[in-house]
Write a structure and sequence with these properties.
Elements: H1 2-22, H2 27-44, H3 59-76, H4 78-94, H5 97-109, H6 116-133, H7 137-154, H8 159-168, H9 179-188, H10 192-226, H11 229-240, H12 243-249, H13 260-267, H14 283-302, H15 305-342, H16 345-354, H17 360-378, H18 381-388, H19 392-399, H20 403-418, H21 425-434, H22 438-461
């Protein structure tokens, strides 16, 4: 009864949070307060709370220690990465590099000027290929916002359509560099490369195709319904009048700066192993390398050291803006996720699945949907999969089946659920750059992702 009570209380909090977010209450405050309240309720009910690295010795103070540790963990990892990308995006816009990339890319892409929705849909497979080399959803999302987003906008793609397909590119967490893949292969005992080539790719190919088709029609429908095309295209035409200035003021070589981080991350990726002695390069380091390349370009172009040094303020301001809007929201979402976990929401869902009396296919479908739902609620594919994944061998053994038959759709649904979560880092970060709301992006993503989820289950189990 106690476990079901935790699920009921969790669902009550989820409904309240959803209502408040829809009423446009401040999401930072809503998620933080809801998370803390759930932790308090879990303490009162004597549930097992998430373990702290260093407890205070007093349960009341421990609640706020969770906030402190979440700040420390996020700022040292994904937070710093997102801030560095935000600063880089602001800097390349200041020096005209992003506009130069648009100017260069528009020439061969003029063919798609009359077919903007085809251009938008093509981002999905291109981005998915990049995602295998750059396995950070928020990182890749922001890199594509710096490079592809302005190109799509100038092709006539609306902001919402552009940002929706960019986030869709992170819907399938596959490849040797993916943390979810690493966990899945460890659980199943399958070699990582074999799992990637023989299991993940054959399933992801039809799903990517289905998403290209569904996004084409979904974005076209929503753009027409929201009647935003006319207003935005007028804005795009105004941007195009600046192209001559970009060409005259900034050398064409500047077009390489926005895509330099992506080039660096691919060249030094573990997937390709171009060098006899492996060189590892993370996204944050790649951003700082690219920043200093941009600074060198500016020194050569302007020959004004003081001006270039002063321009670095744009980078720091960009980092600060991303911190106060995006990183803090990721931290509060983490507290909310801890609240759900502490009330036994995940354990309760697993218990329901195990006691439902379904066969192997039924259990696989239920577990897949549960992870999808958990990722939506927590905004993290990793968190939901790491909670469910280790239970697969036990469940598979009791059903007399291979763990791989259940775990493959589960690990894909984890990243798919994150793509339709308004509290996911990639959704929050790209929404901020695009100047739209997270719920607007989720509304575009939900139909294609649910369709892909259903196709995956049918294709895999039938």
């Amino acid at each position: 009864m106690t476990s079901y009570l935790g699920i009921i209380i969790s669902l009550l909090f989820i409904v309240i949070v959803a209502i408040l977010l829809l009423k446009k209450y401040n999401p930072h405050a809503v998620l933080l307060i809801a998370g803390l309240l759930m932790l308090i309720v879990a303490q009162i009910l004597n549930y097992n709370l998430p373990q702290l690295k260093s407890a205070t010795g007093f349960a009341g103070f421990d609640l706020f220690r969770y906030i402190k540790e979440s700040f420390a963990k996020t700022n040292a990892g994904v937070g710093l990465m997102i801030m560095s990308i935000g600063g880089f995006v602001a800097y390349i816009d200041k020096i005209g590099a992003s506009k130069t990339l648009v100017h260069v890319a528009m020439k061969p892409l003029k063919l798609f000027k009359k077919h903007p929705y085809i251009a938008a849909s093509m981002v999905i497979p291109i981005g998915q290929i990049l995602f295998t080399a750059i396995p950070s959803a928020a990182g890749l999302g922001l890199l594509l916002m710096a490079s592809l987003f302005p190109i799509l906008v100038n092709l006539g793609v609306t902001k919402l359509s552009a940002v929706s397909v960019i986030t869709a590119a992170t819907a399938f967490g596959i490849g040797p560099a993916s943390a979810i893949t690493a966990s899945a292969t460890e659980i199943t005992g399958i070699d990582t490369i074999i799992f990637f080539l023989d299991y993940q790719i054959p399933l992801v190919l039809p799903l990517s195709l289905s998403m290209m088709i569904t996004y084409y029609f979904v974005n076209k429908y929503f753009d027409k319904k929201e009647s935003s095309n006319t207003v935005e295209k007028e804005a795009f035409n105004e941007q195009e009048t600046d192209k001559t200035e970009v060409k005259n003021d900034v050398p064409i070589i500047y077009a390489i700066i926005p895509i330099l981080p992506i080039i660096l991350l691919i060249v030094f990726s573990k997937i390709f192993n171009f060098f006899p002695n492996p060189i590892t390069l993370d996204t944050t380091t790649a951003m700082f390398i690219s920043l200093f390349v941009a600074i060198i370009f500016e020194l050569i172009r302007t020959k004004n050291i003081k001006l270039v040094m002063d321009s670095l303020k744009v980078f720091w301001n960009g980092m600060g803006n991303i911190f106060k809007t995006v990183v803090t929201l990721i931290i509060t979402a983490d507290i909310f996720a801890k609240g759900l976990i502490s009330l036994g929401f995940i354990d309760g869902l697993i218990s329901v699945a195990e006691n439902a009396g379904f066969g192997a296919v039924g259990i696989g479908v239920i577990m897949t949907f549960m992870i999808f739902l958990a990722s939506m609620l927590m905004g993290s594919g990793n968190a939901s999969f790491f909670a469910f994944g280790p239970l697969v061998p036990k469940i598979a053994k009791s059903l007399g089946i291979e763990s791989s038959s259940i775990i493959l759709p589960m690990q894909l649904s984890a990243s798919m659920g994150r793509t339709v979560s308004p509290v996911a880092g990639v959704i929050i970060a790209t929404a901020e750059i695009a100047g739209v709301t997270t719920l607007q992006i989720v509304k575009r993503n939900i139909i294609p992702l649910v369709v892909a989820l259903l196709i995956m289950l049918i294709y895999h189990y039938i």
